[in-house]
Write a structure and sequence with these properties.
This protein has about 220 residues and is of the alpha+beta class. It folds into 2 domains: about 140 residues, no CATH class; about 70 residues, no CATH class. Helices cover about 35% and strands about 15% of the residues. The chain is built from 10 helices and 8 strands. The strands form 3 sheets. It has a 4-stranded antiparallel β-sheet, with helices on both faces. It has a two-stranded antiparallel ribbon with strand order 4-5. Strands 7-8 form a two-stranded antiparallel ribbon. The longest helix has 12 residues. The radius of gyration is 18 Å and the shape is globular. Bound molecules: cobalamin (B12) and iron/sulfur cluster (SF4) (2 copies). The site of one iron/sulfur cluster has 12 residues, from loops.
């Protein structure tokens, strides 16, 4: 089992080839964290995710050989689960019930805040990042510096709020039925399905981290299900 100070480096080294990155750590007061495999409360989680298209070279190569359900979750689990034994950790995955509060953890780990779309915005990666899993530990982990800039504060026009052709994105929340109905329509198949969510695309922050077209299409197909 690794110790608290070596844990983030060991995880980063193990996952580097597949493009899954360490996205910070959160320490909890006793009883606040998720449950570990032994039934005790975690004192820390290390968040794992992608920034820009970091996972696509590895995941995109793996994808054609898999014809089961939930390919991205399956791929992520295959890579992250082996670390639990090596590091004495418990793994959590964002789509597995009960849903763990990944976004709350991310806000604490990196100092991120939500964009008007509901997803968290990063000053460097913009809206082009996500979480692939987290590892929980029975000890505290050294945390790194947090970002202090929230890009939406200085964004006067907020183009993300006006770009959706069916107004599915608003301050009131994300209108999932309106979005899905558009994605299933002829215009939706020619726009968002091909080049990604127009609201997300409209954000000028982190444009160089925009997902490659194949990854955008993969996520749009997943959103339709
Ligand atoms: C359910 C869910 C959805 C539902 C949303 C239903 C709804 N109206 O709330 C659906 C399927 C529609 C959805 C869509 C998307 N989602 Co989603 N979703 C989740 C999931 C599995 C659970 C959210 C939750 O309730 N958590 C439980 C509570 C306890 O956790 P929490 O951290 O306290 O909750 C936060 C969220 O609920 C958030 N929130 C509230 N309303 C909304 C609305 C939206 C659209 C989102 C994204 C978040 C959000 O506010 C809370 C902050 O404290 C999370 C994974 C996870 N485990 O969190 C991903 C997650 C939030 N989704 C994510 C993403 C990227 C998306 C999509 C962009 C994916 C896509 N294919 O394009 C779209 C959004 C499209 C858009 N136009 O913006 C990412 C966000 C990453 C980030 N940068 O913040 C997450 C973390 C998954 C991941 N693997 O990284 N999602
Ligand atoms: S367009 Fe502006 S308000 Fe919308 S997510 Fe990007 S920075 Fe934030
Ligand atoms: S995917 Fe298209 S329809 Fe759905 S919220 Fe984004 S812009 Fe609107």
């Amino acid at each position: 089992m690794s110790g608290p100070s070596t844990v983030p480096g060991s995880i980063a080294a193990a996952l580097k080839p597949c493009g899954i990155l360490v996205r910070g750590a959160v320490n909890f007061v006793p009883g606040e964290g998720p449950l570990l495999a032994d039934g005790k409360y975690a004192l820390a989680v290390v968040l794992l995710g992608n920034a820009g298209g970091s996972i696509w070279p590895s995941f995109g190569n793996w994808l054609p050989g898999y014809d089961g359900a939930d390919p991205l979750d399956t791929w992520s689990k295959q890579l992250i689960r082996p670390l639990t034994e090596k590091l004495g950790a418990t793994a959590y995955f964002p789509s597995d019930p009960p849903w763990q509060p990944f976004q709350q953890w991310a806000m604490r780990a990196e100092g991120l805040k939500p964009s008007p779309l509901g997803i968290l915005i990063h000053p460097q990666f913009g809206l082009w990042h996500g979480y692939r899993g987290a590892l929980g530990f029975p000890f505290e982990i050294e945390t790194s510096a947090k970002v202090s800039v929230h890009p939406c504060d200085g964004c006067i026009d907020k183009p993300c709020l006006t770009a959706c052709p069916v107004g599915a994105v608003s301050r009131a929340g994300f209108d999932v039925p309106a979005c899905r109905s558009y994605l299933g329509s002829e215009p939706g198949r020619k726009t968002c399905i091909v080049s990604g969510c127009l609201a997300r695309e409209a954000c000028p922050v982190g444009a160089e981290f925009r997902y490659p077209p194949e990854q955008l299409q993969f996520h749009m197909r997943a959103l339709m299900r």
